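Private note to self, pasted from the team thread so I don't lose it. Backbone tokens:
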């Protein structure tokens, strides 16, 4: 089918070989000769500039040909610019070494044969419709935000299930009439509160609201598949950025000169102080306050200290001297730190206290260390005055819902009311300088939102019964994907707050599981590009992992335990369990004291070289620290600052019973260590949003995966059904597609929840 491109290949070959040596083919849309040029594409690379590009791409990357209930499924990768992201390049290399790529909405440069379709979403919908040469039906969706986008989002899977074109309406009735006439379309589905002047089609059926759309989706699913296993929960308002009225930026510089020793856990300053404070006055109104801290060492490069990464920490206090947030450089970057908060009409002086440490430190029972600081500390303070409290940390994840949902033969549940930072929050949070993560008085408001969202889930499940799909869903896999960050779809805060933590409550996704009736997982990443890559690594897991060359990786299960009482878990769980799973075909290795530093793991591929990974030991939301007893606890830790640059060549899973490694409430997801492991290439992360104890075993979950051959979501559901001991029952979460079922030697690959 690609012979039509041979002429272009010959024309470009000489020119490119004489210049860069790379072979680029960029075919404009009008150079596509037959519909097969689109349908035979291997991968769709989609611009993040408009969420409607994702909606349109979903219908051509995932579709079910006519009466066939098996999908034609191609990867969709969201790309933010004209150059391929490194993580997308790695996926392409493992999925299709010589692909035909279609670039949607951007002029993409690739070393592959590439068709570029760079039009507005409205014009693109008209253009793409021309490739549906066998369709007698079409769907017209509204263009815009609010209800228009919500209705378009909910309806998009219908185009995949019926394999019909999507036409976007924006006062373009004439163009739509021409397409309807050219394609001989005789039946139109009109979505949302629009009234296009279409006079060609013989039949027009309107679906003006979410209820009518959901009914049509379920009727189609019943006819097409006779069952449903997958629901996607998302918030359509995440396509809107924070609404900035004004921005104020202040820069400050500090000179630090300090020598400190730590003896018996007590720091002693021999010279100067490692602590600085910065105060800024915030006026009345809604403000997003952000601090960026940069540490620049002035020590001679030959100094031994210069070769060690500095460690920064900070606390932020409101005008009443109450801590409203804290951060560390391991959560951001080497020698750099970030912290932010959302202030709701609470004016006054805000104080950031920064502590620096540059040297060696270690010891669990009695710490010791030496720090030598001679550095500049640059501080950038930015506060944006906002029109409302609306603050998505990961924009436009909802636009991936149609693709994710269609691939699983499911239905979308979407509503702007799911937001924490809604207009109601503006009033409830007035006089607070932080959110429910640090303020217990906001828990009731937050939890009401979660309960109302859970009620919406239940209503949609009740609707399944109308089409005979309810019992098969609840008695089957019952997957529910939560596609959104914790501002767009918040976690529930169970009491009590734990002693010694600034964070309040026990944040949990449990209520969305309806008393463990559903198998839930939150699909999250640094960005929409990250999440699109994660979804593709999941849907095409077998393709990228079935190569015989990676058979040793597929069968590998690695364990690591940490120092400081982590040895107990290693001795009584990991060592015996590692032997037990060998009967199911796994090869296992346990790494403990003296073999548990980041440097050792990087050199010997401890985590990147195994399909299954388990860690028992100390952790926090920005790192895990198995190597404590020596002299360099900070330098040997596994933190966001270093792991964000790791590469998992194959999509491993990471399971941990450590404290707080799953905490994403009150912080951007890109500061969390669990989400960072997904960013680096893992397919699933199981961890806890707060501290855990001896009840935090993983064996029930692991046995469900290995022996019962369940998906990640079902394995977590079984664990929560069988073991309700807190706090682990409340705070353990899954980040990743709940339908993802990792390979194991006993059961092989699964279909990852696709029909």
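Design output:
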């Amino acid at each position: 089918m690609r012979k039509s491109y041979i002429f272009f290949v010959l024309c470009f070959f000489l020119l490119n070989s004489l210049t860069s040596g790379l072979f680029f083919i960029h075919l404009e849309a009008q150079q596509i000769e037959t519909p097969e040029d689109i349908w035979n594409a291997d991968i769709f690379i989609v611009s993040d500039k408009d969420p409607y590009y994702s909606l349109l791409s979903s219908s051509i990357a995932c579709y079910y040909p006519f009466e066939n209930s098996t999908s034609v499924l191609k990867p969709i990768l969201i790309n933010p610019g004209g150059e391929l992201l490194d993580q997308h390049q790695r996926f392409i290399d493992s999925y299709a070494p010589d692909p035909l790529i279609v670039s949607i909405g951007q002029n993409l440069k690739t070393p592959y044969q590439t068709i570029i379709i760079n039009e507005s979403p409205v014009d693109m919908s008209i253009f793409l419709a021309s490739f549906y040469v066998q369709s007698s039906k079409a769907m017209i969706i509204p263009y815009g935000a609010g209800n228009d986008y919500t209705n378009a989002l909910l309806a998009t899977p219908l185009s995949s299930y019926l394999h019909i074109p999507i036409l976007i309406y924006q006062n373009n009735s004439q163009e739509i009439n021409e397409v309807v006439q050219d394609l001989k379309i005789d039946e139109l589905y009109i979505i949302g509160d629009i009234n296009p002047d279409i006079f060609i089609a013989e039949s027009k059926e309107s679906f003006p609201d979410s209820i009518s759309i959901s009914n049509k989706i379920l009727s189609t699913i019943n006819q097409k598949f006779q069952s449903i296993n997958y629901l996607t929960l998302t918030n359509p308002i995440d396509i809107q950025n924070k609404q900035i009225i004004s921005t104020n930026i202040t820069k400050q510089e500090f000179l630090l000169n300090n020598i400190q020793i730590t003896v018996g856990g007590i720091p002693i300053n021999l010279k100067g102080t490692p602590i600085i404070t910065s105060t800024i006055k915030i006026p009345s109104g809604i403000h997003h306050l952000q601090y960026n801290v940069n540490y620049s060492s002035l020590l001679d490069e030959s100094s031994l200290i210069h070769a060690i990464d500095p460690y920064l920490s900070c606390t932020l206090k409101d005008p009443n001297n109450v801590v409203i947030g804290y951060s560390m450089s391991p959560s951001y970057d080497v020698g750099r730190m970030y912290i932010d908060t959302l202030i709701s009409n609470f004016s006054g002086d805000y104080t950031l206290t920064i502590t620096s440490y540059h040297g060696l430190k270690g010891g669990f029972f009695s710490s010791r260390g030496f720090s030598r600081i001679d550095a500049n500390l640059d501080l950038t303070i930015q506060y944006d005055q906002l029109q409302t409290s609306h603050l998505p940390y990961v924009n436009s994840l909802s636009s991936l819902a149609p693709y994710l949902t269609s691939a699983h033969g499911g239905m979308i549940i979407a509503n702007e009311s799911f937001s924490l930072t809604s207009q109601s929050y503006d009033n409830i949070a007035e006089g607070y300088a932080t959110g429910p993560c640090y303020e217990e008085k906001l828990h009731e408001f937050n939890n009401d939102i979660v309960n109302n969202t859970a009620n919406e889930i239940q209503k949609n499940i009740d609707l399944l019964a109308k089409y005979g799909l309810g019992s098969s869903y609840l008695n089957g896999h019952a997957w529910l994907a939560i596609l959104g960050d914790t501002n767009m779809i918040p976690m529930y805060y169970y009491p009590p707050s734990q002693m010694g933590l600034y964070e309040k409550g026990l944040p949990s996704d449990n209520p969305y599981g309806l008393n463990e009736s559903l198998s839930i997982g939150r699909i999250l990443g640094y960005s929409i590009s990250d999440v699109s890559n994660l979804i593709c690594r999941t849907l095409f897991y077998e393709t990228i992992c079935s190569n015989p060359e990676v058979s040793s990786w597929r069968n590998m299960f690695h364990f690591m335990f940490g120092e400081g009482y982590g040895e107990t878990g290693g001795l009584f769980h990991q060592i015996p369990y590692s032997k037990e799973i060998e009967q199911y075909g796994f090869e296992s290795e346990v790494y403990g004291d003296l073999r548990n530093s980041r440097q050792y793991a990087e050199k010997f591929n401890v985590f990147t070289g195994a399909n299954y990974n388990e860690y028992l030991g100390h952790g926090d939301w920005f790192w895990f620290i198995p190597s404590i007893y020596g002299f360099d606890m900070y330098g040997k830790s596994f933190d966001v600052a270093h792991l964000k640059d790791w590469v998992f060549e194959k999509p491993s899973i990471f399971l941990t019973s450590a404290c707080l490694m799953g905490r994403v409430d009150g912080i951007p997801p890109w500061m969390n260590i669990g989400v960072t492991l997904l960013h680096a290439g893992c397919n699933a992360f199981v961890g806890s949003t707060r501290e855990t104890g001896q009840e935090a075993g993983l064996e029930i979950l692991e046995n469900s995966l290995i022996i019962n051959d369940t998906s990640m979501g079902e394995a977590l559901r079984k664990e929560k059904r069988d073991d309700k001991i807190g706090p682990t029952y409340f705070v353990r979460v899954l980040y990743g597609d709940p339908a993802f079922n990792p390979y194991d030697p006993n059961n092989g690959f699964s279909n990852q929840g696709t029909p």
